[in-house]
Structure formats: structure tokens, C-alpha cells
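Q: Here's a chain of 205 amino acids. Please give me its 3D structure as C-alpha cells.
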Amino acid sequence: MSPGIENIEVKKVNKVSTGIAGLDFQLGGGYPAGSIIVLHGSPLSGIEKMAVQFWKASGEGTHYYLMIDGLVEDGMVKVSTSDVEEAINACSTSKRVVVDSLSSVILKEGVDEALRLMKETSRPIVEHGGNTLFVLYSGVHPEIEEMRIARHADVFVTCLEEMHGSEIERKLMIRKLRDADVPNRMYPYNIQTEGIDLSTTARVV
């Protein structure tokens, strides 16, 4: 016998802002709280701006941006690949931790170390409802390594760029999303001075 409507339990998923209003709208409030997020794309796709917007988004708790291989902005923490584990451990009570980039860890320490950082080192953050976000550059790693990273992410976002004549078209694709249906759409976006601007319209693929 089918359960009555009053007996069906609906799982409520807490969300945290992505820092991008249009993306929050498309995801029904943002990323799932307590998740491991991977932003995947070329260095010119805007994923670094997306990472900064996530870091700077309003929300409770402390926020950390661990910069391994880029220019350090005010408030970021400069770390080396050999020190990133210790840095993540120091952020264990934080609500948002960004690691830029996971690609540097893979290239210098190996993909197994990168997976350990994702799964084990960031576990205390995730278990307390915080989120860890890792930047992963496309075109750098073998497909098998990207596949292993994707398997251990709760959220996997890819930014794509296509040339159409003299115009560049940028699209964002949610390829994995914990506790929710994965959208079957790609979302057009623009890179602006202040960050990523995501349209609230969608394109069916």
C-alpha cells in the first residue's frame, strides 16, 4: 500500500550562497551545505572569479581563501603545496574554504594526495556544515585523474567557452549536484569586472 501524502518525508537541504545571484536562483538557493565543490575550467573561463565570489559571499562563520599558485589578494592566505594540508586543518571550523588550485597539488604532489585533501583533510569542515571549494584547471590533467576528482566531489561545475565567428559564448554546466536533480541545462554567463554575471535564462542541451 502506498503511503499517504501526510506520511511522506521530504528531505530539507540547507543551501549556502554561491556568491552569484543568478546561480543561486538556478540552484534554489546555492550549493548544498556541507559539500565538496569543484570548479572546473580554463584559466580564462572565469572560474577564479567564481571562487573569489564564493569566498566573499555573505554568510555565517569564517571564510578562508588558500592561494597556492596565483596572485594573493588582501585577505587571502599564501600556501605551498606541501603546506596546504596544514592550512586546511587550521580552517577546520570555517564555513567556507577555497583552495586555488587543486591542479597545483596534483602536479606537484600527485592525484592521490589531492584526493586525500578533498576527502580526509576537509572532512571536519564538511561535517560541521562548512564547504570546501577546489579550483581545477581543464586541459592540464589526464582524463582518468579528472574522473577520479569528479567521483569524490559533491558538486562539480564546468565552465565552457565557444567561439562563434568573432564572439565568445560562455556557458556554465552543473555536472554533479548532491541531494538534488542535476540540471539538464547550460547557463550562459558573462565575465565582468566585479565577477561572474549569470543569466536567469537557460538553454536546454
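Q: Can you summarize the key feature?
A: The chain has seven helices and twelve strands.
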